Amino acid sequence: MISNNDIPTKQARRTDRLLLRPPTIADLPFLTELFARPELVAHRPVPQPDSPEESAARLAKDMAHWKEHGFGRFAVLAKGELIGFGGVTVSNEFDGLNLSYHLDPRSWGYGYATELVSGILSFAVGELGARRIIGLVRPANPASRRVLEKCGFGFEREVMLHGAPTTSTASYPEASEQTLKAWHCLTRGLAHAALLSAAKLRSTEDRP
Prior knowledge:
By secondary structure, this protein is α+β, with helices and mostly antiparallel strands. 37% of the residues lie in helices and 25% in strands. It is globular, with a radius of gyration of 16 Å.
């Protein structure tokens, strides 16, 4: 398997409705506004919005990860408008690539979270050759856990994250070569299903 540092990638990706591209410094105003929204940080142990300085550091970290590894958290666009960020990153704390996403609350309820996660998994498994992907979810954020479960994750164990004892983790099973093709078919089906069920998802918003 190729090491994370040597993986060649074409940087932009598309799903049925989303454009995924590497983040740029031009995304900073949107990111600062996004992480200042109370709805986005409500699940944190201390639900305090990020300062502009913290948001700038977050973007710099995401851009540095792309520069070092050739992949990372994408900027996510729908209908030409930036709606959030998400992708997989190298984890120094846990075994496997870490999947995370944050979407603008104004885009919740349209099935974008499910479509984004399935697209990220297709990229990570099919192109990066990932055999293990984790998703870390706060118990206070059950909507995100439901999104991960719809995309094939299952509960693994309780963990500590940033000193908070109330964090759970979901894990994507290690993939064999035979399951990669099946996974591509599954993710395409999930994206299509997300589009068809958008009206229903409005009542059970896909939260980050």
